[in-house]
Amino acid sequence: YEMANRVARTLYRSILKEVRGLTLSNSRIFLLEKPDHRKWGHGQVVENTSQVDVLLGMLPARAGILALDWAMTEKDLVPTPDEAVEGFTRQQLYKTAKALFHYQRTEKDEGAIRSAEDEGFEALRVLASQQQRQLCSSTCMTAGVHVRCTSVFVPQQQRGKDSFLFTYRVTVHNTTRNTSAVKLVGRHWEILDANGNVTGSVPKGSHGVVGMTPALQPNETFEYYSGVELPTSEGRMSGSFQMIHLNDSEASSGPFTEKGDVSEEGGKGEEFDVMVAPFALRGHSQVPS
Predict the structure, then answer these.
(1) CA separation for the pair 171, 247 (Å, rounded)
(2) Residue 189, Cα to own-chain centre: how many angstroms?
């Protein structure tokens, strides 16, 4: 039993250390789910998932069930969705981690203790993966439109020693700072390899994304997946989206329209650029997740 306590204390300290690594003392960490390379080429309007739901989905099974119960009954132990809209503070994650460990320290059954240890190691793996995900992500707000990108290496699709394939997820959120719908009509990308050489580019104004030109009302989010191949194991991407504001009649035509069917009349605003901050493409050095 004393050995189990020592293991638990070591895991506890290690998990708090990982949380410190994820968050600066005065910042928030926005938890990122792993991009699914099987969705490459797909895009859709998605529900705005709360950060609390993302956290609960990342926790090991028993811890997740316990935290879900606390979210409904012990609201001081798990932040509410409104408190975590922009992510979690270090203090919020500390409080949840401490509560989980204090609860599991009351376990007496040997099988339950072993399960708790296994879940502690799983939590460490999840935190390490999250750390890598943050290094391969970027976020940027322009004119009330928020763009977040996350990339992941796809080793199973490598076609040779000088071929490194990455998939990336882009979410475009029209925030409530805007009072009108916006439409994504074009894109621009610049792709660099590990040596800073431009290995690919998409000219500014190229039509839409994954064959779509989504229109988003305030507080709506569009998510899409695409990918890129590099000759080196690391690189980066950056760029912009070309967007326009829509009036009510144009926005009511639906979220996806083909090129050219936004009228030049009817109050359409000037085209404006929404920046995509640089995000890393990292190959073999990534922690499996």
Answers:
(1) 23
(2) 19
Over the stretch 150-181, which tens digit does the pLDDT of each residue have?
Answer: 999 998 666 667 789 999 999 999 999 999 99
Angle at 232 between CA 229 and CA 233, to 5 degrees: 90
Phi, psi of 226 (to 5 degrees): -145, -165
Residues 20, 240: Cα–Cα separation, whole Å? 32
Tell me the C-alpha to C-alpha distance, in Å, between residue 279 and each of 4, 138, 149, 258: 41, 5, 7, 29
What is the number of other CB atoms lying within 10 angstroms of the CB of residue 233?
17
Q: Are 236 and 281 in contact (CB under 8 A)?
A: yes
Using DSSP's 3-state secondary structure scheme, residue 64 falls into: helix
Summarised one tens digit per residue, pLDDT across range 219-250 is 999 999 999 999 999 999 999 999 999 986 56
The alpha carbon dihedral of 155, 288, 68, 21 has a sign of: negative
